[in-house]
Design brief:
The complex is a heterodimer of chains A (533) and B (173). By secondary structure, chain A is α/β, with parallel strands linked by helices. A five-stranded mixed beta sheet of chain A has the order 2-1-3-4-5, with helices on one face. Chain A folds into four domains: 104 residues, Glutaredoxin, CATH 3.40.30; 220 residues, NADH-ubiquinone oxidoreductase 51kDa subunit (Rossmann fold, 3-Layer(aba) Sandwich); 91 residues, Ubiquitin-like (UB roll), CATH 3.10.20; 93 residues, NADH-ubiquinone oxidoreductase 51kDa subunit, iron-sulphur binding domain (de novo design (two linked rop proteins), Up-down Bundle). Chain A is 41% helix and 15% strand. In chain A, helix 10 packs across helix 13. The termini of chain A are far apart. By secondary structure, chain B is an alpha+beta fold. A four-stranded mixed beta sheet of chain B has the order 2-1-3-4, covered by helices on one side. In chain B, strand 3 and strand 4 form a beta hairpin. In chain B, helix 1 packs parallel to helix 3 and helix 3 crosses helix 4. Classes of the chains: A alpha/beta (533), B alpha+beta (173). At the A-B interface, helix 1, helix 2, strand 8, strand 12 and strand 16 of A face helix 2, helix 4, helix 5, strand 4 and helix 8 of B.
Amino acid sequence: MTINVYIPRDTTAVAMGADDVIKALKFQTQLFHLPENKELNIIRNGSRGLFYLEPLIEVETAQGRIAYGPVTVDDVSSLLEQGMLHGKTDHPLCLGLTDKIPYLAKQQRLTFARAGIIDPVNIDDYIAHHGFKGLTKALTLSPQQLVDTVKDSGLRGRGGAAFPTGIKWQTVLDEKKNEKIDANEKSTQKYIICNADEGDSGTFADRLLMEADPFSLIEGMIIAGLAVGATQGFIYLRSEYPQAKIILEQAIALAYENNYLGQNIQDSKQQFELELRIGAGAYICGEETSLLESLEGKRGLVRAKPPLPAIEGLFGQPTVVNNVISLATVPTILAKGSDYYQNFGLGRSRGTLPFQLAGNIKQGGLVELAFGCSLSELVTDFGGGCYSGKPIKAIQVGGPLGAYLPKAQWQTPLDYEAFAGIDAVLGHGGIVVFDDSVDMAQQARFAMEFCTIESCGKCTPCRIGAVRGVETIDKIIAADNAEQNLDLLHDLCDTMVDGSLCAMGGMTPFPVRSVIKHFSDDLMPTAQQQGEK
Amino acid sequence: MPQSTTAKIQQLIDQKKHLSGALLPILHNIQDQYGYIPKLALPLIAKTLQQTEAEIYGVISFYAHFRLQPTGKHIVEICRGEACQAMGSKQLEQAVKEQLAIDYGQTTQDNSITLEPVYCVGNCACAPSIKVADKVYGRMTAEKFAHLNDQLSTYTVNLTEQANEEQVMEQRK
Ligand SMILES: Cc1cc2nc3c(=O)[nH]c(=O)nc-3n(C[C@H](O)[C@H](O)[C@H](O)COP(=O)(O)O)c2cc1C
Ligand code: SF4
Ligand code: FES
């Protein structure tokens, strides 16, 4: 008899010691604790996304999986002594049935339904958990029906800009429709590109998905290919994610071996090829046109739009560029129907968003929920407040180009339009919590500094503006003509918003202005506060 | 020496040159092998891809990941992203720089560690993070780093594993 034990190979699980825990577990069970006739089978799953509990060990029992965490090397012997391998629940680290842990039970897992449950590089495990059902359905539909299904689901891009995915696909489908394949076959080539550059600090949903359930992304890309008539796909993965790279490479190879990729997918006469490409440490290459340049082997300079990538994208051909989560959600929409998906959500934000609780938070992790809950629900009910135990002072939502929100705004419903209404963005769903020790003037300064580091350099408002921005904020902090310099900073922000070619320069003012507006005490202490210092 | 290095680099180029947009895959292939892009690779890449050396250089210099100089034995990257800032990465950064007596972009005197900044490694729920080669470490502190630094500069990988097992034995007693 084998005892199945799950210990994630996810980056964060390993960063918190999962590999060492496994070594200790193997070593100690070899010597002592294994019941007779039992064999230990350690499965390296992805993470459930409950990162505050990593490394999380799960033991399979007749009742379901029993969880223990966070486990350190030092805990292993007492866990074994107290019957972890029999699923006994006495140990203080035992969390009971994994599925009943409130943090997980309260979520609406659609895109992340399989995360942490399956072995990410076991294609049979994927199929046993409803994998490729969306593709099977897709193979019975026409391209237009596929595009319509995605349109009806209300899915909007999860990479940040929230553009309706179905409309983007329609544009690509309609391109070159009537052109016959001629001698120059290239002319009708279309591409599906998965944007896996996940550059926003405070976000890890793409990484978690690729490390936990890579086949769902592959399946989504195949369906996208069928929908728009593209036979070649690329995943552009950031170089900072080596673990995701290994897992994706294995998953792609397995998909080829099992005839889900290649020239005749599941004997349907449909073709889709997929290649993994690695970025090289440039935040701007997450911007879709910069990404295209990079894939073409060039510097990642942003292209002017139009033409849209959907019309002239990679190597000048019609190209779908979609975020990991957008694409990995498509199989669920196909398998369960567009109605099912669009029944979740609020207003024009349909479906679910994987929120990512990060920074100074007690219970950090991934929380997939329908749009519409509030920030304060997320950071208190799920997050449990600050890791430091101090009060929360500010929450940055939507990555380095997102606004810092003061307490008064934490009740805003999390949906795209409501956030736009308060000059904020949901972006890719990153939520970074700061306690009251944070100096918000430094955060405003960092926003500008980040822009100086990551600007592609193509347009002046961004390239020069950000440098001036850092200087100006430094002067304000030093109380050097603070009033005039604040006016200057306002002007600079206007120039960057109005004159930048892309959202790098165009949105850097969001966090800066939010600090000016809501945390001015940190930026310009009143005479009295200065006296106190 | 250059003779064989040239042949080897040409081989690394040839492995990837058939790809569309082959330049980044070629650069990765070379850097994965050597830890940096040796200068003599530039004319070889340029010739193979029918581009100028200046173009190749322009691409290399655009991307933070690619380097034209060799590094120390280990590359230590400290995350400067906001989630890590919220957990005290600035103090950590200061402490690490003091411990190693180097700044970003520099290498320790014993050639053991090259220090670099990184902007998020996706471990934002267990910040602050550092990365050593392909391994991420969460909830990093100055003390933990001092310990890690000792390991990096003295032990080999095998010895580290042995040390772990000894630790386990120790606990069993
Ligand atoms: C500076 C900048 C960085 C971006 N980084 C990413 C990224 O890392 N991942 C991503 O999916 N989209 C990113 N985007 C958005 C992409 O340009 C694009 O909108 C997205 O990939 C489209 O996919 P979606 O419609 O599925 O969201 C970024 C945009 C900008 C302006
Ligand atoms: S705004 Fe900045 S990143 Fe965007 S195109 Fe202009 S210089 Fe490049
Ligand atoms: S911000 Fe440091 S790991 Fe993401």
